[in-house]
Amino acid sequence: MKETKPWVKPALEIGPVLLFFAVFMLFRDREVVVFGQPYSGFIFATLIFVPVLALSTFLLWRVTGKLSPMQIATLVLVILFGGLSVWLNDPRFFKMKPTLIYLIFAVILAVSLLARRNWLQLVLSEALPMDAEGWRKLTWRMMLAFIGLAVANEIVWRTMSETTWVYFKTFGLPLILMAFLMANAGLFRDHALDKDSGKE
């Protein structure tokens, strides 16, 4: 990985989401006309978010030298579903995007367990050294967590207000993922490997 200032990567990852939130909150009660086409504040925020995320992902690749599979998948789905929402002037496509992302990763983790090839370990083992049993347990838990997040996203966007969903997407989902990682601290500790020796 290329050497970068410690704030650059988080800024590029979080910046587009915070920009979407700010634009939505500013225009949520207004109609915005772009090239003669009227858009709601939500669609207008999506219209801004899609190219900004594409640019930030490109810059992230330039400064770090790599992108994770999740970052690439997220970008592709944002362009696809965000583009559909703007093109059809229908916010439902963009609201369904997190559901699809979480289900895709749940399926990937399920396939890795069935194939007995722990892909989560391949991606994260350098940052989180654990034995094989620890990775198996974490993969099961993350698969179930992704399914739960997909269900939660569907419930929120289908039954609650647009503003509630934006708050949930911007702050709720990251906090849930953070709580999940904290709840697994015992697993990380019990199955940790010594970084120097590679042994328990």
TrEMBL record:
Highest taxon, organism lineage: Bacteria
Keyword field contains Disulfide bond: no
Keyword Transmembrane belongs to the record: yes
Localization in the cell: Cell inner membrane
GO cellular component: plasma membrane
Bilayer-spanning residue ranges: 7-27, 39-60, 72-88, 100-119, 140-160, 166-188
Membrane topology type: Multi-pass membrane protein
UniProt keyword terms in alphabetical order: Cell inner membrane, Cell membrane, Membrane, Transmembrane, Transmembrane helix
One Pfam family per UniProt: IspA
Principal place of residence: membrane
HAMAP family from the UniProt entry: YciB (MF_00189)
Function as written in the Swiss-Prot or TrEMBL entry: Plays a role in cell envelope biogenesis, maintenance of cell envelope integrity and membrane homeostasis.
Matches recorded under PANTHER family: INNER MEMBRANE-SPANNING PROTEIN YCIB, INTRACELLULAR SEPTATION PROTEIN A-RELATED
Family assignment from sequence similarity: Belongs to the YciB family.
Protein name: Inner membrane-spanning protein YciB
